[in-house]
Amino acid sequence: MKTNLCPCGSGNDFKDCCGPIIEGSAKSKTAEQLMRSRYSAHFMGNFDHVAATHAPEIKETYNVSSAKAQAQNTEWVGLEITEVIAGGPNDETGTVTFTARFKENGDLHAHRERAMFRREKGEWVYVDGKINPQIEPRKVEKIGRNDPCPCGSGKKYKKCCG
Fold first, then answer.
1. How many beta carbons lie within 10 A of that of residue 153, not counting itself?
2. What per-residue confidence (pLDDT) applies to 154?
């Protein structure tokens, strides 16, 4: 039996994954499902699905013919979801951070985005995204020589780990 794996990288068959969402016979249950279907739509050149899943206030900013023209030199090669915050079946908003890899004119590139979604009349829509989001910087607290050692020994830092 031949399977056609979904381009979104879920490991599921396209007809059981993004296919019904893209063709309109099913709705996304989560923000991540919508994100995956939008990636698969890019992969397949179905820019009408991408346009249809924009929030009303940004629909006018998406140009389908421009997206089609850009896609002529683009080959999508993989999607990696790195973080999902909320966006579940009972949520009203959600954020999906992802990396979409693609080749353009033979060169490999990565599109990193933190995408924001919300429910609009019961359906998930793409609201906005931050390209190349920065990771929260690690906070380092300076320890004084005479402060207690953070290892928990009870000694002064200078006499222990310092």
1. 12
2. 81
pTM: 0.81
| Residue 79, number of CB atoms within 10 A of its CB | 23
pLDDT per position as a tens digit, 45-63: 999 999 999 999 999 999 9
Single-letter amino acid code for the residue at 155 = K
The closest alpha carbon to 37, from 154, 126, 143, 129, belongs to 126
CA atoms 127, 130, 131, 132: torsion sign? negative
Report the relative pairing of strands 93-104 and 107-120 from DSSP bridges. antiparallel
Q: H helices of 6-157, where?
A: 19-23, 31-44, 47-52, 64-71
